[in-house]
Design the sequence.
């Protein structure tokens, strides 16, 4: 099976669009929780294939977008320490904190590495025995097993110069917070793909029950997204409200149990974590267990890490966008003062961010950008 | 194993030894061997003149190395201006400790690549810098070519003209990324690195005058199309399903969240020709190995001036944006 072409088959996409047009009988606001879905929806022009009464609402599922500025300031403070190499994943190096980004700090001479895999940290640590490598760990449940695996290897190989700054966040808690807030007008959810591979689809069952809102776990390809929308439409037509799994080729109800055990071995839920634009959400992120405090950069470098929360620029409406209350082009700085090359808000920084996706792919059909 | 030493860049006997024993041995020609301060050249009519520095990491990759790139890159810059490549200069900046054997294999691939277009290195320079001064080896090549087809320009595009790409896009970028990040993918992907004088010369000989011609190097296909749309103040409508992309490249892009249209190429060009010339252009390009996968990908249109519109295989549209910033992998 060709895992790309099979799920981009034009005839299949068109047939699904036809069924959705024929069967959609009521307006539906569908929140895609995951930034990867936002990217897919915009990149493949999916809104153009759907009836107008089906609208997408963009959720909080981009680990870069939801990172509050004070956590980025932590990364900047760590990277500025003598003898520290700061390693992190992808777009994180472009996100502005209150004093610039890791990218600007790197240009000033700090040793900052953008990794493709957390396991690269091992190599960097071994090649630099006189330095401390701090892994600035980010991501939802998708990337947490890789960090847990890195902790396991650091301990097993007795590598003395690796520390972790843990910013792993969880999906169900912010979704519940958004729904419990009562402002968001959301009829159904597209459940994240990669997160669900690890967690299984069972984690969404309490949300469906509590808020009477269907969730369909969807893959990232156009056929996946279209098929998931049709499943949502059919749930409403048939009066059902349940967790459905469209992405059966990768996701089970139970998920990857050994990855879950690995995470539980080293990490536990924080009492609370501050989400950019959303605020404090109880038990919505992970930290290292006390038994591994000697690996915890937040404890080892506690004295140099800033503690004051920092709010976004007042013109930036990333918070509203992350809660599904606004579209990127409704922000007055979108595409003007805030662009991928000079982002003011975090939704413009990451390629998974709603604003970046609209800026890059949405100009053909959406207003708001010159 | 012999390694390059600082003394070999000092200008003395050791430097002469390196130049004569390696560079002259493989780049041999009358003008170079005169060893004057400057080469004396005889060039007729208008010339194209270009320079480029090559700093690729890793230095060796599937299907090529920095030396092949340094020749093909500068040759192609001349060819894209409608010029027959004639002469190159070549500067090596070598890190102390560099393996002589690796340097020789780079020099040999340069010699082989020059033979494809008949271009000659007529002047050069060698510097050896202390360890850490450069990442192994940097090469600069400067080239002169005689313009044989005048008027090729990014400003020539008008509604109705046709757009052609000469090969699969993204192979070089994907290949370098896979090697650099040690992705260890099971794949047969090779760089597209190649000199394009032979197919372009054949186009000229067949009476085809490209309106615009550009090798899609850094920034890839997306950068070229956007630059043309901007320069000619026209819209470009391209079909996603018509753009050739290797399965391996699609796979890497999906894995890391990139677009193949933004990946660098080193032997793939984009051509704008009169609509009536499409079939003839393709039939000429298909005769050459380096352009045998050439495809017609779209047309110049009157609307959306300055923009490139990509049509998806299922009929939706989006703008193909020019690439921005560093290529960073997605995390979700």
Sequence:
């Amino acid at each position: 099976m060709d895992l790309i072409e099979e799920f981009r088959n034009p005839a299949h996409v068109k047939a699904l669009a036809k069924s959705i047009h024929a069967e959609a009988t009521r307006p539906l606001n569908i929140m895609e929780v995951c930034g990867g879905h936002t990217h897919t929806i915009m990149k493949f022009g999916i809104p153009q294939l759907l009836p107008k009464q089906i609208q997408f609402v963009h959720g909080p599922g981009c680990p870069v977008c939801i990172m509050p500025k004070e956590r980025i300031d932590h990364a900047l403070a760590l990277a500025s320490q003598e003898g520290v190499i700061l390693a992190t994943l992808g777009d994180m190096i472009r996100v502005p904190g209150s004093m610039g980004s890791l990218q600007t700090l790197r240009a000033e001479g700090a040793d900052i590495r953008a990794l493709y895999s957390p396991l690269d940290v091992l190599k960097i640590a071994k090649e630099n025995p006189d330095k401390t490598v701090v892994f600035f760990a980010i991501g939802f449940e998708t990337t947490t097993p890789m960090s847990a695996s890195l902790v396991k290897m650091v301990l097993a190989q007795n590598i003395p110069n690796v520390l972790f700054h843990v910013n792993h966040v969880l999906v169900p808690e912010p979704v519940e917070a958004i729904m419990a807030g009562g402002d968001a007008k959301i009829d159904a959810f597209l459940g994240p793909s990669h997160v669900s591979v690890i967690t299984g689809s069972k984690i969404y069952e309490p949300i469906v029950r509590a808020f009477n809102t269907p969730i369909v776990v969807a893959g990232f390809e156009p056929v996946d997204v279209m098929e998931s929308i049709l499943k949502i439409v059919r749930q409403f037509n048939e009066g059902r409200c349940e967790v459905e799994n469209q992405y059966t080729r990768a996701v089970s109800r139970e998920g990857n149990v050994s990855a879950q055990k690995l995470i539980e071995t080293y990490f536990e839920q924080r009492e609370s974590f501050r989400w950019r634009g959303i605020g404090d959400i109880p038990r919505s992120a992970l930290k290292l267990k006390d038994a591994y405090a000697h690996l915890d950069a937040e404890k080892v470098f506690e004295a140099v890490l800033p503690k004051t929360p920092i709010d976004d620029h007042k013109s930036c409406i990333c918070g509203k966008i992350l809660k599904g209350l606004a579209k990127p082009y409704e922000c007055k700085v979108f595409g003007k003062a805030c662009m991928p090359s000079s982002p003011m808000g975090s939704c413009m920084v990451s390629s998974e961010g709603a604003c970046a996706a609209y800026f890059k792919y949405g100009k053909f059909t959406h207003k708001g950008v010159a | 194993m012999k390694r390059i030493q600082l003394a070999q860049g000092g200008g003395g006997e050791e430097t002469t030894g390196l130049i004569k024993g390696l560079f002259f041995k493989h780049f041999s020609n009358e003008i170079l061997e005169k060893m004057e301060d400057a080469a004396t050249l005889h060039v007729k009519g208008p010339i194209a003149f270009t320079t480029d520095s090559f700093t690729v990491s890793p230095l060796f990759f599937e299907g090529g190395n920095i030396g092949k790139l340094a020749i093909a890159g500068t040759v192609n810059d001349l060819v894209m201006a409608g010029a027959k490549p004639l002469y190159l200069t070549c500067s090596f900046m070598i890190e102390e400790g560099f393996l002589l054997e690796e340097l020789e294999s780079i020099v040999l691939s340069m010699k082989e690549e020059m033979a494809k277009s008949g271009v000659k290195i007529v002047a050069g320079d060698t510097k050896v810098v202390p360890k850490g001064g450069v990442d192994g080896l940097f090469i600069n090549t400067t080239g002169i070519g005689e313009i044989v087809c005048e008027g090729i320009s990014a400003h020539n595009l008008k509604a109705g003209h046709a757009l052609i790409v000469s090969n699969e896009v993204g192979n070089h970028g994907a290949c370098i990324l896979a090697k650099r990040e040690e992705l260890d993918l099971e794949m047969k992907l090779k760089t597209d690195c190649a000199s394009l004088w032979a197919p372009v010369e054949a186009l000229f000989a067949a009476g085809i005058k490209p309106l615009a011609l550009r090798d899609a190097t850094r920034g890839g296909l997306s950068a070229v199309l956007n630059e043309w749309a901007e320069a000619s103040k026209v819209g470009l409508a391209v079909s996603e399903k018509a753009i050739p992309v290797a399965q391996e490249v699609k796979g890497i892009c999906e894995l890391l969240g990139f677009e193949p249209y933004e990946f660098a190429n080193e032997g793939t060009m984009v051509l704008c020709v009169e609509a009536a010339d499409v079939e003839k252009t393709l039939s000429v390009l298909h005769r050459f190995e380096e352009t045998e996968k050439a495809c017609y990908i779209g047309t110049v249109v009157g609307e959306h001036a300055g923009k490139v519109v990509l049509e998806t295989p299922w009929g939706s549209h989006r703008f193909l944006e020019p690439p921005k910033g560093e290529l960073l992998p997605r995390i979700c």
Q: What stands out?
A: The mean pLDDT of chain B is 93.
